[in-house]
Amino acid sequence: MQGLASPRLRLGCRRIRAGDAGLLLPEETATIAARQLSARQASGAARALARDLMEEEGLEAGAIIRSAAGSPVWPAGVTGSLAHDDEMAVAVIARRSDILSVGIDVEPAAPLPDDVAALVQTAADVVTGTARNLATRLLFSAKEAVYKACYPLHETILDYPDIRIDLTRGEAITITGFRAGLRFCLSPRIVVLAVAFHPA
Ligand SMILES: CC(C)(COP(=O)(O)OP(=O)(O)OC[C@H]1O[C@@H](n2cnc3c(N)ncnc32)[C@H](O)[C@@H]1OP(=O)(O)O)[C@@H](O)C(=O)NCCC(=O)NCCS
Questions:
Q1: Residues 6+ apart with CB under 8 A from 114
Q2: Which parts are annotated binding residues?
Q3: Considering the domain 2-98, what is its CATH architecture?
C-alpha cells in the first residue's frame, strides 16, 4: 500500500479494534452518534489514523466531523479521505495547497458478485490488464474512491455509470467533468486512491 504514496500524499492503514469508538473526538461523536457501535469503531479508527498522518505532515491534527451528506470535513488547509471494511481502516491526507482532492477505498481482494458487477460496469470502462477475477471488484472500488474525491468539489450524488474508469491508463472522469488519476494495489486487500491535482 505504501507504493501508492508520494511525497505529497500520506496514507496508512490500521486494524479496527474494540475500543476505537473512544478515539472519536467529542465534536466528531456528535456527528456520528446515531450509528451502530461497529460503525463508530471503524470511524474512530480511520480518524485516529488520519490524525497521525496529519501530525507526521506537520499539520494541526484537528477534528474531522461528518457532514450531513456523510463526507468528512477536514481541518483548514487539509484534504483527505477515509474508508473502512469490517477489519481495516484506511486514510489518506494531503496539504490542500498540494492536492485539489483525493478519495480512497478499501475492499476485500475477492471477486465481486455478478449481479453487483452488472450495476457497476459499463461498456465505457476499461479493465484490461488487471487480474480477471478481481477486475470488477477493483472497478467498484475505483468508482467509490473517485466519488469520494469528486463529492466535496461538485456536491453531486453520482451513480456507478456516471463514472468512467480506465484501469489501464489509471484515469477516471465523471459526468460532472471531474478528472482523477488512479493508483491501486490488489494485495492483501484492494486499495484504490483517486487523486486530482490543481489545474496547471
Ligand atoms: C461514499 C460512499 C460511496 C462510501 O461507501 P461505503 O462503502 O459505505 O463506506 P467506506 O468505508 O468505503 O467509506 C466510508 C467513508 O466515506 C466517506 N464519505 C461518506 N460520504 C462521502 C461523500 N459524499 N464524499 C466523500 N467522502 C464520503 C466518509 O469519510 C466515510 O467514513 P465515516 O463513515 O467514518 O465518516 C457511500 O456512503 C455513499 O455515499 N454512496 C452514495 C452514492 C453511491 O453509492 N454512488 C455509487 C458509487 S459511485
A1: none
A2: 47, 105, 107, 144, 148, 158
A3: Alpha-Beta Complex (3.90)
